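hi got a favour to ask and not much time before my train. below you get a single protein, a line of residues and a line of whole numbers that encode the local backbone shape. could you go over both lines and see whether the tokens make sense for that sequence. a few lines back from you is plenty, here it is:
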Amino acid sequence: MLHYRIPGQEVVRSHGIFLPVKTLHDFNGFVLSNADATHLYVFHPMKHAREVLHPKKIKPHNMDQTAFTQVIHKIQQAIKHLGLVKLVISRVSSKPMENMKALDLFERLCNAYPDAFVYYFNDLTLGEWIGASPEILLRQIKDQYFLMSLAGTRPSSEAPEWNNKEIVEQRIVTDYLEDILQKMRLNYECIGPYNHVAGPVTHLRTDITFESTRNITKELITRMHPTPAVCGIPPNLAQESIKTLEKHDRELYTGVIGYVSQEQTHCYVNLRCAQIIEGELHAYAGAGITADSNPEAEWIETENKSNTLISLLN
């Protein structure tokens, strides 16, 4: 079962299963990947519903604030001594769904976040996931392309006053995307940064637009993901550090998710998402750590991000 809503469009509901593919060039349709895109899946629609009986899933590890603070100190030592510039560390917050049904939560997410890519699926292989991502990886309508640089986080309840850490964090992502486009010899236009409200949090956002008569959608997705907004700088060192420091498997969190076709593509980064295991919601959230990060502020940031989903359980 798959339900999803692209912003500004109607909800799509379909029965089917996710099947693995080797590369992004192998498919059209609804796609997703794991965090580092080593596993790719495409949804195959079916006429009739099938009962989904998942293998027993292991509940992800929940990191408490003390452990989270210790991890941030380790990252800052790596920044000081090992050449790491930024690392996005994630954690999981868990809460029983009690009497809330997953499809009811999906409807609440659609209503609460009209500008987010909202989805829910229940699959034999991948399990049960739900999310409402604010971050476009790539949108393409014919020869028109759109990218988004999204980073830096403040509570939406406050008027954002961005500090140097947050401004630099967002600039790193923008520079990364611009470098890819320059290497592909594409002429582009940037608008921003400006404030982007995403439910309980507000981000710094820059929009990047360009045209291409050549369809470069799948090449761009492959080149861009994972971005510094979900991994870090330099990418290889950041990915290795994540594997060492995080006790949970990110699985589909921060992967690619969305719809891809020749005519149009709506691909997002799988943020503000959760895995549902045995009636419990396990929400994933991350924070970009730099030399100037404050552990208390980063903890609060991940709490606010997790509340995108958890607050709607009440």
In short: Residues 64 and 121 are 29 Å apart (CA to CA). The domain at 2-313 is CATH 3.60.120.10 (Anthranilate synthase). The longest helix spans residues 164-183.
